[in-house]
Each structure stands twice: as structure tokens, then as C-alpha cells.
Amino acid sequence: MPRRTDITSVLVIGSGPIVIGQACEFDYSGTQACRVLRDEGIRVVLVNSNPATIMTDPEFADATYIEPITPEIVTKVIEKERPDALLATLGGQTALNTAMALHEAGVLEQYGVELIGANVDAIEAGEDRQRFKAIVEQIGAESARSVIAHTLDECLAATDELGYPLVVRPSFTMGGAGSGLARDETELRRMAGAGLQASPTTEVLLEESILGWKEYELELMRDKADNVVVVCSIENLDPMGVHTGDSITVAPAMTLTDREYQRLRDISIDVIRAVGVDTGGCNIQFAVNPDDGRIIVIEMNPRVSRSSALASKATGFPIAKIAAKLAVGYTLDEIPNDITRETPASFEPTLDYVVVKVPRFAFEKFPGADPRLTTHMKSVGEAMAIGRCFTEALQKALRSLESRDAQFGWETTDVGVAEWLTRAEVPHDGRLRDVQQALWAGASVDELHDSTGIDPWFLDQVQLVNEVATEVREASELDRDLLARAKRHGFSDLQIGRLRGMPEDVVRGVRHALGLRPVFKTVDTCAAEFAALTPYHYSSYDEETEVALRDEPAVIILGSGPNRIGQGIEFDYSCVHASFALRERGLRTVMVNCNPETVSTDYDTSDRLYFEPLTLEDVLEVVHAEQAAGPVLGVVVQLGGQTPLGLAQRLKDAGVPIIGTSPEAIHLAEDRGAFSEVLGDAGLIAPKHGTATSYDGARRVATDIGYPVLVRPSYVLGGRGMEIVYDEEQLARYMREATEVSADRPVLVDRFLDDAIEIDVDALYDGEELYLGGVMEHIEEAGIHSGDSACVLPPVTLGRDLVAKVREQTLALARGIGVRGLLNVQFAVAADVLYVLEANPRASRTAPFVSKATGVPLAKAAALVMVGDSIADLRAAGVLPATGDGGRLPTHGGAVTPVAVKEAVMPFKRFRTVEGRGVDHMLGPEMRSTGEVMGIDANFGTAFAKSQSAAYGGLPTKGVVFVSMADRDKRNMIFPLKRMADLGFQVLATEGTADVLRRNGVEAIVVRKHSHGRGPDGELTIVERILEGEVDMVVNTPSGQRARADGYEIRAAAIAMDRPIITTVQQLAAAVQGIEALGRGELDVRSIQDWNAALRSEAGER
Amino acid sequence: MKALLVLEDGRAFRGESFGATGETFGEAVFNTGMTGYQETLTDPSYHRQVVVMTSPHVGNTGVNDEDPESGRIWVSGYVVRDPARRASSWRATRSLGEELESQGVVGISGIDTRALTRHLRDRGAMRVAVSTEDTEAASLAERVRRSPEMSGADLTGEVTTPIPYVVAATGTKRFTVAALDLGIKRMTPLRLAERGIEVHVLPATSTAADVLATGADGVFLSNGPGDPATADHAVSVTTDLLGRGVPVFGICFGNQVLGRALGLGTYKLRYGHRGINQPVQDRATGRVEVTAHNHGFAVDAPRDQVFETPFGAAEVSHVCLNDGVVEGLRCHDVPAFSVQYHPEAAAGPHDAAYLFDRFSTLLEGTR
Ligand SMILES: Nc1ncnc2c1ncn2[C@@H]1O[C@H](COP(=O)(O)OP(=O)(O)O)[C@@H](O)[C@H]1O
Ligand SMILES: Nc1ncnc2c1ncn2[C@@H]1O[C@H](COP(=O)(O)OP(=O)(O)O)[C@@H](O)[C@H]1O
Ligand SMILES: [Mg+2]
Ligand SMILES: [Mg+2]
Fold this sequence. Notes:
The complex is a heterodimer.
Chain A: E1 9-13, H1 25-39, E2 43-47, E3 63-65, H2 71-81, E4 85-87, H3 92-104, H4 107-110, E5 114-116, H5 120-127, H6 129-138, E6 146-149, H7 152-162, E7 166-170, E8 180-182, H8 185-198, E9 204-208, E10 214-222, E11 228-236, E12 249-251, H9 258-275, E13 280-288, E14 295-301, H10 306-315, H11 319-327, E15 354-360, E16 381-387, H12 390-400, H13 417-425, H14 431-440, H15 445-452, H16 456-474, H17 480-488, H18 493-500, H19 504-513, E17 519-522, E18 536-540, E19 554-558, H20 569-584, E20 588-593, E21 608-611, H21 616-629, E22 632-636, H22 642-653, E23 658-659, H23 663-670, H24 672-682, E24 689-692, H25 695-705, E25 709-713, E26 723-725, H26 728-737, E27 747-751, E28 757-765, E29 770-781, E30 791-793, H27 800-817, E31 821-830, E32 833-840, H28 847-854, H29 858-866, H30 871-877, E33 899-905, E34 931-937, H31 940-951, E35 960-964, H32 967-982, E36 986-989, H33 991-999, E37 1005-1006, H34 1022-1027, E38 1033-1036, H35 1045-1056, E39 1061-1062, H36 1065-1079, H37 1088-1101
Helix pairs in contact in A: 1-11, 5-6, 13-14, 13-15, 14-16, 15-16, 16-17, 18-19, 20-29, 23-24, 24-27, 25-26, 31-36, 32-36
Chain B: E1 2-7, E2 12-19, E3 23-31, H1 37-41, E4 49-53, E5 57-58, E6 77-80, E7 82-83, H2 96-102, E8 106-109, H3 113-123, E9 126-131, H4 137-146, H5 156-159, E10 165-167, E11 175-180, H6 187-194, E12 197-202, H7 208-213, E13 218-221, H8 232-243, E14 248-251, H9 253-261, E15 265-282, E16 288-300, E17 307-309, E18 312-320, E19 326-331, E20 336-339, H10 354-365
Parallel strand pairs in B: 3-4, 4-6, 5-7, 6-8, 11-12, 11-13, 13-14, 14-20
Antiparallel strand pairs in B: 1-2, 1-9, 2-8, 3-9, 10-12, 15-16, 15-18, 17-18, 18-19, 19-20
Helix pairs in contact in B: 8-9
One adenosine-5'-diphosphate is lined by residues 144, 167, 175-176, 207-211, 215, 240-244, 285, 298-299, 375 of chain A.
């Protein structure tokens, strides 16, 4: 059956900002879908608020709307574009829920838009846990005993039947938001409360606990002719009770006989048919009782999911791509398998290797957050590794996490077996290492199986690793056989070095001298039954390598590894663009990365893909293999963020050519001392600063710089461990708690610039000319990490001459450092003085935002500059605008050209303290956001309003605002609050704040502080009022020091109630403009292609 | 202990001994299944073959007493990259290593099984030896070249049951079927029995008269090892039964036997189909089923049109979508059909189970 001819345009909904539980895997799937649909000659209309995605690049859709993914906005897009169909199964839960809302609102019917992929009924059947259980029963399978509840009382009643512990799960949520394991009534009350909140249908499911059972996932595809294939089976190493997103997972399933596996397969197929997913992918989760094999169906997702991305990368079977083809009418047998080209997609991939995925967490950034892993997802990213055996894949995966304590180690500790066993018992980040340590300390596999529930086969494999470690440590000499054996089980040169008490590079030297190197095998979907034409490689210490020779020169691009706070999809975006640009320029591109969620690890993004950890050792081996295969121009390290940048010098020392900015230049920017000289030579100023290794030292520096100061450990990323210190007492505390302070790791002390405006700049430099990509004005003042503060482009309040100064200084820095390619600079303006905060000689988090906002492909241009093109060349070639740049954006009073606002999305809501209270919503110099959205419109107010509704619920246009301001902010709050009162808002305030407002003629009602408790006549405290839903917006700027208890309670309550929280006075001002804009009338939508055209014609006119 | 694997073209792999020690010869073939090693090992169709598992970890779930497809392990040698050190399954009663050893099956582990598989894919299935005794590649290769070929091998006699036996129908008996045991798997009679069929499993040497003597409503031609070109007896029995209008259903080797009875030829595939992920299309419905395969030979039949046979018109009912190999035959004028793959699916997906229903329908119709 050929593709449907009745579909000429399709609306694709993306998944919005990166949040925990919904990361860039949906950019990967969405991008694939858009490509496929366009290849089919179908007009693609896309809605996604996330500017950091590849899919929102103008060339991936015919009309791209970077707008909030809300039913209202999407309705507008539908009105305007009139698509024939809506594809909502590739944009995660966000897209699915939006599609459902559009259906319920009758919009789809009204405009005759057909929901393709999964229809409404299938989505409901799959997502509504109650209906789903009925289906499971009807096909003769079993699901956990459960009770559905819509109120707390119903929940409590249910415990009679189910008993504790029990699992609380809201319907229609993603990543297990609001779900949890309740051990007693208090926990149940809390979780059920949150759960009912989280569920769009205020419905929770209470379920019998099957903690400790084996957990599996199957990925399926079905076409409209009812052909079904199982793409991949995934086994969770962590048993039931830990969300699959937080579990270490393994493909294929390792501990099932064929009979059990086929039973899972049969059930899956019956389920997908009964649920009625007509075409596309779906994922089904199972629990298997390790004692008798009893099978329980946990859930199904009638859409492409995080696991589908993993399964695609693990097998080479591109689920999203094929789902899109199936959605427009093809059948599986009509679609060729990309990798073999000979055989069709209607088969089931078979693996001759093992894939291990490990999660990456960020608990260190959320002090107080409960680090125990449970049924809702807490990880912020993941790394995947491929090996020919489990031990190899596991150790590669662990080192891909780039955190030293993730890897196995064999130091002797004084912790006893019993202690290790208890530590391993409760699931937490790094649990597997505790398991390994327990075995190392002498615990038996069976003891660990009892305490963790982890399958003995996996435990024995960890034991095997320990045994090899012992051999390596005790052997009289490190001969070839022993070294080969260690490498075969995934030991890194570093680990072997630690075991033998020798440096990593000595081990490497010995290894190379013995001619011992990894070979590179191919992911081919068919275990070598057919020849593979797609060079998707992984390393293994085996006999035969499969890297093909080539004549054309190649460029190796290093990706950014697992997503983490501070280094995420934005960097993958730049890597992918570099690959596209260099391929167009006739070069062969080779991608190295280990993040399965990304577009960069899609096998057809680059000419060759190496799915490898980004450690020096692994990268050197890839380089060696490619140099043996043909000419290599060099390695690109400046696009993947800090990870590859950190490798630059050592790669160069190993004789590997680095493309673009040289390691020496990078050092000039990264090293404090060197950087000060660069600044000095260029006559630029940085905030006064010094370094200290002791409290006394720090006190001296601080007193002569003057408080407040900003302190931080040296060599940090994402503002890790950064704190604003207002006095000696706080400084003493910081120095006491500051970890690893030493002579060579001093604490950096900077003058903290109060009330300074922060400016972010992305620029391109070719050695001659500077192209200013964009000048971004932060909404929040300096002191809020650039990654966490909203910013606007073009800057709305900066004067022309200031921008000119920014341009001069950026140029001076680019020259001084010796940049070839991208440069990101953060400035701060205080009292009309322009300070340089830092310069990053690499692609920045903001590069994609700038590209979208100005309609210029910065990363592409950067890649071309790195290989020798000049900015003049690029202007001539039309890659960059013929004249002008991002620092001279046409500003027609904002009439026809866009103003873009970037807003950060914070994960606070996902975390709770051990007691189950929310973690504090506080912005600071340490970055905490997981993602971002963009609002774009003709004026700042509207753009800001859009960014807010895209980032969270959005700003209220009327109702009640609660205000509690720090003294230093009281003056600046008056004007905006007066305006809000005029707009009809009722203002509640704490006493002091209310006073000031009244004195300035703003009507304000005093409310009781939390700490004062209820009033004599039972008047509610502010916290209670927020929880009662009486407040629509909370403005609370913490006074100077740490947030006061009240502040915390208030913000926690606001988070619980999903109300906007404003924590800086600048945000307040922006919010008021947004509210005004909303008041002026509803939001309009306009495609990026349109905005870009406007920009170009404007530029042309000048 | 060290072990050595040498192919007839001289390519050698050195690894560790796995299972029994000693020396073994056979045809090197690879199996791409990720599950079901117990079923594979005990499938008589693998008689005289040294099986290379492409899946690296084998033995993880140990060995139990329910899953074997026959009374013993048939493979002549076993090649695995990473044998499990510890079996983990509530059904396991012993480890795979122990089982291979106790049944005297010589194996090798720790070699680059993917390299070996690619070699066989490119050069075709060939003879091989695995030895823990001769560590001299050249001399072992010499002896490999003197070992018997699979082409022309008549192995039926070595795998068939010596005496007839009956598998009772589960539930009420609806039909009687005589199964000609050319190397039958345990699961097949069970699948028939599940459908109310009483199965009389007969030795391969049985005659048409023996078959009819069971009062059979139809005959089943089983899977089995060896070169179908040598199966003259089974072919003549089948020809005789077709002549009498007895319903016939064949699987794997049985498909080739029916093919020959219809006057079609058979040929050896370069490296065969051995796995449980093969896409086969039922040309009548267009539906694709994911199926279990284990065949090194195939039937040579015109795929594009209905063709004439001594028993009237017939057609190719199923093809493998990977390489277009004939996977099934259907007669128009006599009640007979067969498939080259394994609907009993042990190991493997259950997509093709409907074929057993087709057979009962056929029996129904010719009552
Ligand atoms: N009844 C249960 N008992 C114990 N753990 C459970 C139970 N149900 C689910 N889980 C655990 O919670 C995790 C999340 O549940 P799931 O239904 O997959 O929600 P989500 O939609 O967030 O993926 C599962 O991966 C599993 O480990
Ligand atoms: N001297 C300073 N005064 C005020 N704020 C500062 C100062 N230095 C840094 N900051 C704030 O801290 C944030 C993080 O500092 P930065 O040097 O950019 O570290 P990172 O390398 O993590 O980006 C900046 O975005 C800025 O808001
Ligand atoms: Mg799940
Ligand atoms: Mg910064």
C-alpha cells in the first residue's frame, strides 16, 4: 500500500522545553519525523517552544512556530495553516496531552484535522490507567491489583484492600510526575494530594507494590495492515521500584528464556492491537516475578518515548522515522531497512552486542532534595554504551557519565560488608558502585541479591569485573594476555593504572607497544547476517575491525556526552549543525558521542558515527582508527561544551590536530591568571578579584575588595558551588563547607556587582573580522546564572553606545584570546561601567537561541570558519547576511521585526525533601534550570508573556498578587505594582511591603505571615491562602542573605499550586509589561520563516 | 583449557574450551537468535552442524527440563563468545556448561564470533572443526577438508524415532494425523495435539501403507537435517499419499520433500536462514509474520506464477522478504501445503501458529 494521497500537510507538535522526564529524545524523534514527511513532499507545520532544538530550525519544516504549546496557541496555528492531519505521537506527553485537549475542545473536528498515528480512543485506552487495566485483563494478561481514586478519602479507603507500601500514580503524566511509593498514611496523604494535583484528570491510581520484581520494556511498531514487530527488549538492572528513566537498563534482555520472552512478546502484540494504536511505535512495560515468572503488565505508552530513542540507538532501527512513514500510510514491508538497504523494516532487529544505559543525576544542585530513587524520574540525562559483552558495555557506560565516582574503583576502604549491604539496599545515584564495593569487601552475590533484588546474573558480572581487577593488581607483570583480558571487560587505561599504581598514559604506552587496541564493530540490526552500509560503530576489544577506508578528508566532531544541568541539548545542536555544514562543504564528518537522546547520535546525521565515551582514551582510539582509514583534518572540540574543551590540550599533546581555536587560546580564556592578562592588555576591566586557600586569606581578599563578594571553587562548570557572600560570618561558613580547597585548587573571590545588568554575547571571529551574533540583555540582574535568567534579543534597554562598547570589547577579547570560531562573553554593567565576567571560547548555551532569534545559522558558520573560511567568504556565500550583524538588528520601533525572549525552565517541582516538602525555588549564581523556551513577537511585553506561558502556566491577567519584598527592592517595586493595581489586580502584601505601597498610594491588604500562624478569628496565613488557590501570582524577593523561612514556605506553596513566582524586581517589571500585553488582546502566532523574511528585507533596506 | 576452531578454508580462531573437551567436525552455521539456545541445541535439524551463536551471552538462564526439543543435544559443536558463569532462572536446574559436558558436546568460547559470522556470510557455510587436542591450525584444517560435506548427506536415519509413538490429542479428539519423523521437534506434535489432533509419530522408513494403517486423516512431514536431494523414500511416500488425496502438511525439510514430490528441485543456500527474526510474507493476505528459521536448503520454484505439477496447479504461498527465498508451497488441486520455516516456534515468535489451524481446516474439508 503506497502512502496516503489525501494528506498534503501535517502539523507536528514538539515536546517543548527540556524537563526531567522529557528531554531531547523528542527532538531526535521529531526531527526524524519532519525530515521523513518533507521527503514525502508533505507540507510540515511545526509547533515547539524550545529554540534549542534541531527540529525548530527553519529548514526542517515549511512553517515553524516557536510558540507556547498550549491548546489556545496551537488552535491559532491550525486556523492559520489548516493542516490535513496532526501527528502528536512524537512529541512526548506534552504533544499527546495537547492533542487530546484540542480534540476535547472540538478544534480538530471543527477544522477537519485528522489525528494520525494513534487516534483519540487509543490514546485514552493507553493513558487512562483504569481503562488500560481492563484491556490487559480482557486479553488474558495480568496487571497489579489497584484502586482508582479521585479524592483523598477514596485513597485512604483503598489501603484496606492494598495495604502498605503502595504505589500512587496519577493518570496522564509523564516521567512519573506526582507518583511515588507510599509507606504509610502520612506519605499517602502527601503523594495522593500531589498526584491529584498533577493529573489533568484529577485521578490517581493506587496500586499493590511489586517492588523488587524484574522489570522489562518492549518497543513495538505496528502498521495499518496490522503487521507488528518488536524492535527491542530492554531489561532494567534495577528491579521494580526505580523508574526506568532512573534505572540502569540493558538491551537485549539478559535473563529470560525464549518461552518467557515470547510470552512478553505475545502480550505486547495483543495489547497494541487491543489498545488500537493503528500505526507507529509504542512501548510496553512488564514486571516479572523472579521466583515463579508471574508476569504483570505495568503500563504502555501509545507513542514514541524515551525508551524508543534508546531502542533506536541500541538497534539501529529508527523508530520515529518509521513511525512517521507508517503514519502517512506505508506498511513495514514497503519501508527499506536503512542500514542494510537490502532488507525491509518488517523484521525484528537482533543484536550481537550488549547495550547499557546509565542515568545521570544532579542532586548536588538541589540541597535537601531526597536522593532516593523511586517511581518518579529524577535523572537529568543519560549515557549509553555498546560493547561485545556486558562488562565491557557497563564500564564504558559508567565512564561516559564523566563523574569519577561513577566508575568502579578498588581502593580498600574501612567500610564493612554489612555497611555496604545497607547502603546498596536503598536505590540511589551511584548504587551500583556500592554494590561493586560490597562485593569487593567480600559480600556474596546472594547476599546482594537479597538486599537489592538485582538479578544474580548481573551481580555475578560485577563480581567478574572485581576478579579481573584482582588479577590486574596482583599479577607480577602486566603481560599482553592480562591486559587484553582487562580491556575485554571494559577497564580503562586509567583504572588499570590505578590498580597498578602507574599513570594512565604509561598504561596506554605499554598497551600500544603491545599492539593492543580496540577494534570497531558495526551496529547493523541483523547480527552480521547481511552487510551493513551504514557506518555506525562502537569499540570493542575483539579481533576484527570493520572501519572502511576512505579517500576524502574527514573532520572529527566531539559531542557533549550525557545531558546535565549546564550542558545539554544546546551543545548537541551546535555539533549537529557543524556536521551538516561540513558535509555540504564536501568534507566527511565523524561524530563521537555517547548520549542516546540526541540528534548527533542519529546514524545519518554524520558520515560516520562512533558511539563512544568522551574520555581521552576513547577519543584517541577513534582518532587512531580514522587516521588509519584515511586523511583526518582534525578534531572539533569547541562545539560540545566543556567536555571536549577539557580534552583539547591533552589531545594536542598526543599529536592530534585541533580545528579552530587552539588549546593555548582556550587556556588563555579558561585560566584565571592568563585571562586577567588578556583583559589587562586589552584595557578591559573585570570585577576586582583574588584567590585564597584559607579562611584568613579569603577574609583578607574580601575585606580589601569589599562585600558582597562572589566565592567559588576554581575550575567549575555551571556555577557549581558558587555563592554570594555578604559578610565574614557567611564567608567563614562557606570556607568551612567548601570542598577540596587546596594550594592548586584555591577559592576564587570576586567583587559581587550589585544591581548590575548582565549581558550575554555570542560572536564569531575568523582572525580578522568579528561577527556579532547577538547581544542579549538579561532580565534578572547579574548574580543569577546566565543559564537561569531570562534574556531578550535585541536588547531593549541598552543604549547604542553601550552596544558599541560591547562590540569593541568582544573584538578585543576575540583577538587577545586568539579565537577561531565561536566566542561567548558575559558582561555586567554597573554604574555605567562595563565589566567582563567571563569569556568562553566555544559554542554557548545561547547559540541556538541567537540563531533562531536573528535568523542566522551561527553554529554552521562557526564550523566553516574553523575549517578556514573567512567571515567575508560566508557573507558572500550567503551563510551570513551580506551586511550588518546581530549587534545591529533592525529595530523599527519593533513594528515588523521580532523581539525574542529566552526563559529558563526550572525543575524544582520535581524534587522533594525526604520529609516530602518542596525544595526551595531560588535563583542564584549556580545554574539549576534544565531547559529553555523562546517567546517571539513584535514587542517585548508580548514576547515575554509568550515565554512565560511556554515555560509554565503563564501570567495571570487579573486576580490576586501577593508581594513580599526585600528592603533593597522596595523602591523599585512601586511603579510596577501601581500598574498592576491599575490593571485591576488585588494586592496582598506582608506588613512592611504593604506600608511602603500604601504610602505610595497603592491599595494593599496585609496578610498574616506563616510564622505568625492563624489570626484570632482564624484568618489564614499567606501560605494557607496560596494553598487554598486564592493567589494568582507570587512576588517574593529574598532579602539579601539566605531566604528567610517564610520566603521558603511561600515559594514552596506557590510551586505546589503551579502559580508564577517572581523572585527579582526586574522580573516583576517584565511581568507587568507582559500582563499589559496580554491585556491588550490575545496572542498572535507567526512562523520563524516569516520573521526571518522580515529581518532579511529590513536588513536589505539598510 | 585452550581450544582451536579451524574452517575448511584455513581460517582459524583460538579461544577457550567450553563444554566437553575433545574434537568435533561438522558444517559451520550461525544462528542469530537472542533467546532459545536450549531449543536450538536440541533441534535434530542441527545434527552434524557446529552452531555459532551471534548473541554474545549464552547460558544466562541455564538449562531446565521443559525447553528441550528432543531427548538430546544434536549440534556437533557449539561456538559462543561469553558463556554465563552463573545461571539465573527460577526454572534452571543446571548450567549450560555442565549440560554440554555431560552430553559430550565439544565447544569453544571467547572468540570473535562476529568475525566468524561475517566470514561465513561472505564465503558461505563450510566445514569446520573444534578441537582441544590438535592445536595445529594447518593439520586440523587438513582433516576438516577430509570430513564429510553437508551436500549429499542423508541424515534422516540418524535422527528419526526407531519405533512409532502416539501423542494424544488435548481435549476432545477431532482428527488423527500420521507424522513422518524426519527429525521432528517435540513442540510440533504438541501444537497439533492442542487442536484436537491425535498424532502418530512414525519412523522415517515407514511406508504409505504404514501411514494409512494408522487411520490417519492426514499426514505431517516434519523438519529434519541433511540434503533434501537424498530424501527419496520420504518423497515417494508423499507422492503416493498425494495420489490418494490424503491431506499433507510439511514443515522445513517437509516443505522440501513436498516440493520434490511436486517435481520441484532443491538447492543449497550460501549460508542459510537460522534465526527467529525472519520476515515472511503470506502472499494470499499480504501479511508479514516474524518467523523462526533453520534451513540451509531451499525449494526452487517459480515465484511469479502458478505452476503445473503432477498433482495439478500449485503456487509459492510464502516468501522471505529478506532475500526472496521460497518459504511455502500450496497446491490448488490436492489438499497439500507446506512451509520452509517453523510455525511451532520453539524457539521463536508465535506469528505463524495459524498454519496449524489451516491444517485442521484442511482436514475438516477433506473429511
Ligand atoms: N506496582 C508497582 N510496584 C512497584 N513499583 C512499581 C509499580 N508500578 C510501577 N512501578 C515502578 O515505577 C516506575 C514508573 O511507573 P510507570 O507506570 O512506568 O510510570 P511512567 O508513566 O512514569 O513511566 C516503573 O518503571 C516501575 O519501576
Ligand atoms: N562579579 C560578579 N558580580 C555579579 N554577578 C556575577 C559576577 N561573576 C559572575 N556572576 C554571576 O554568576 C553567573 C555565573 O558566573 P560565570 O562566571 O558565568 O560562571 P559559569 O562558568 O558557570 O557560567 C554569571 O552568569 C553571573 O550572573
Ligand atoms: Mg514507564
Ligand atoms: Mg557564564
